């Protein structure tokens, strides 16, 4: 079997085990057995448990970001691109709940270098959202700090909804419904900002 195929099988197995058991409790024996490979071969290809987990986090982050970028087509208007990007995000996390669990729960729980890889994913999504907000609102209506703040808020909300949607016990919304929820918050709010309607700080 080509090494590329064998490594993919190992990563697939590792994502399942890490998502189910967490990084600390996951064993290389279980990963090797699920991948149909010997433990020495897993170590030969992927060096260590830490390196294996890092490879899983990086792969899942890259695939998710690629799915969002592919959905945001440059020929579409900004509103449609944001809608398509949100739908792609929720569709991907719903279709790959174990990969999302590794990114959203496991990688963040064990510090560096894993949390840094998730932060890179978030920055990539935030960059996409900032550009869409700036194109839709115009730099005259929003400054860079406001656009960035809105993008971070939107991404944080998307992550929370994805966590809920991939929780087995939750009454999870469909990808389309989750995306519509954020569009109602983000786009309606953005229209208000463009039209000069802002929440003012009330001082006692």
From TrEMBL:
Keyword set includes DNA-binding: yes
Superkingdom field: Bacteria
DNA-binding region: 27-46
Entry annotated with the keyword DNA-binding: yes
InterPro entries registered for this protein in UniProt: DesT_TetR_C (IPR054129), Homeodomain-like_sf (IPR009057), HTH-type_TetR-like_transc_reg (IPR050109), HTH_TetR (IPR001647), Tet_transcr_reg_TetR-rel_C_sf (IPR036271)
GO BP field: negative regulation of DNA-templated transcription
Keywords: DNA-binding, Transcription, Transcription regulation
Protein name per UniProt: TetR family transcriptional regulator
Species: Streptomyces caatingaensis
Lineage: Bacteria, Bacillati, Actinomycetota, Actinomycetes, Kitasatosporales
């Amino acid at each position: 079997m080509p090494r590329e195929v064998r490594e993919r099988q190992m990563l697939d197995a590792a994502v399942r085990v890490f998502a189910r058991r967490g990084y600390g409790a996951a064993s290389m024996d279980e990963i090797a057995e699920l991948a149909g490979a010997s433990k020495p071969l897993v170590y030969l290809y992927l060096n260590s448990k830490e390196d294996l987990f890092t490879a899983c986090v990086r792969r899942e982050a890259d695939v998710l970001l690629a799915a969002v970028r592919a959905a945001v087509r440059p020929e579409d208007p900004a509103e449609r691109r944001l809608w398509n990007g949100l739908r792609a995000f929720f569709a991907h996390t719903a279709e790959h709940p174990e990969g999302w669990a590794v990114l959203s729960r496991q990688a963040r729980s064990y510090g560096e270098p894993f949390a840094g890889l998730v932060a890179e994913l978030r920055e990539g999504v935030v960059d996409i959202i900032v550009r869409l907000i700036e194109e839709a609102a115009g730099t005259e209506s929003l400054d860079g700090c406001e656009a960035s703040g809105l993008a971070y808020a939107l991404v944080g909300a998307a992550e929370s909804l994805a966590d809920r949607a991939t929780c087995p016990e939750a009454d999870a919304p469909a990808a389309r419904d989750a995306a519509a929820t954020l569009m109602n918050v983000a786009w309606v709010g953005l229209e208000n900002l463009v039209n000069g309607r802002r929440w003012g700080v009330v001082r006692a």
